[in-house]
Amino acid sequence: MLWVEIITRALFDNRLADLISYIAAVFLCYYLLKRYVAGSFRSLLEKSNKSCVFLGTIPLFYYMFDYVTTVYTNILYSGTKWAVEFMPSVISVFYFIFITLYYSEMQKQASLQRERDILDMQFKQQKYETEIERLELLVKVHYDSQLGIYNRRYLDENLEHVMMLLSRSGGNLSILFMDVDFFKKYNDTYGHKKGDECLKTICKTLSDSLPREEDYVARFGGEEFIAVLPNTDENGAKLMAEKILNNIRALKIPHEKNEVAEYVTISIGITTGKILYSQNAGDYIEQADKAMYISKQSGRNRYTYLDMECKEY
After folding, report:
1. Between β-strands 303-305 and 266-274, what pairing exists: parallel, antiparallel or unpaired?
2. Which of 5, 133, 223, 309 does the annotation list as catalytic?
3. Active-site residue 85, yes or no?
4. How is residue 147 annotated by DSSP?
5. Which residues face 219 on adjacent strands?
6. Under 8 Å CB-to-CB from 306, ≥6 apart: which residues?
7. Which of 22, 48, 91, 139 is the most exposed place for a label (fewest CB within 10 A)?
8. Radius of gyration, CA atoms only, the chain
9. What is residue 120's predicted lDDT score, i.e. its pLDDT?
10. Domains, the chain, ranges and CATH?
């Protein structure tokens, strides 16, 4: 501030020099307060020499406030009419400047907040789009788009997860292994296009027959399908198998080469058990496959139950 006082006293008289020096001192104090108190202290104190920086600024502020007080006192008590008349105007100017700077700072903060909100919205939108793309990819990987049900890959991955959860909770797992009766003869008679339409209709019926969200049907291969029924005991699995048989029969899809009926039918094998740590998904599928084979040997268009201890019902 010394250079301000020297220049003003060289250009103006003592009273005007004191006034200009006072204005310059107040502006400098405001700038320092705004810079260090509002923001710079936070960044400066994070540095390794934070204590030195903080202590070094204290004498600077003390000197500035002391200088402002001294100059103001000289002006106020100079006894001149000029100082008394101009002081209210000076105060008004300072008030106007302060309000203007304050409003400008508020506008700047509001603009920064809007920019942050826009960036946050863009980030959320990008995250949402990425999640949609991920889900679409999972659908392509785990879904049989031709038949509208899960594929073998999803069955292999999900069944192991379901068994792990049931082994902890102690719940039952039921597996229904289903095969369309004489489907090769159906393709030979009506063509592969009709065969694909037939399988699509059967898959929709199988999915609609499962009432719970946790139950699902997956294509095991060709005309073979598996229904996974977590937390379902023997009686529940048998009721579900009977329901599926009746729903497929109700479709009455013509099949003149079917040796057990005039329309398309299926054979079902069922197995149920409590999950043991020594078991895996293949054990349950193999047991349900054995039960389905027994159904075919026993005349098809029916279900057979085998528990995990190989007892037939």
Report:
1. parallel
2. 223
3. no
4. T
5. 225
6. 269, 270, 271, 287, 288, 290, 291, 294, 312, 313
7. 48
8. 43
9. 85
10. 2-117 (no CATH), 147-305 (3.30.70.270)
Instruction: Determine which helix (DSSP H) or strand (DSSP E) holds 263, and give its type and residue range.
Output: none
Residue-by-residue DSSP string for 160-182: HHHHHHHHHHT-EEEEEEEEETT
Q: Give the number of other Cβ atoms within 10 Å of residue 167's Cβ.
A: 15
Contact 288, 176 (CB under 8 A): yes
Tell me which H or E stretch contains 72: helix 50-76
Residue 76: half-sphere exposure toward Cβ, Cα within 13 Å: 9
Pairing of strands 224-230, 303-305: unpaired
Q: Mean pLDDT in runs of 10 for the chain (313 residues)?
A: 46 52 59 51 44 45 50 50 51 62 77 85 79 65 84 89 87 94 94 93 94 92 94 94 96 93 96 86 93 94 86 48
173: left (phi over 0), alpha (psi -120 to 50) or beta: beta
d(CA 232, CA 311): 18
Tokens coding 91: 């105060």
Give pTM, 2 decimals.
Answer: 0.59
Cα–Cα nearest to 310, from 290, 282, 292, 293: 290
Cα–Cα distance between 238 and 269 in angstroms, integer?
Answer: 10
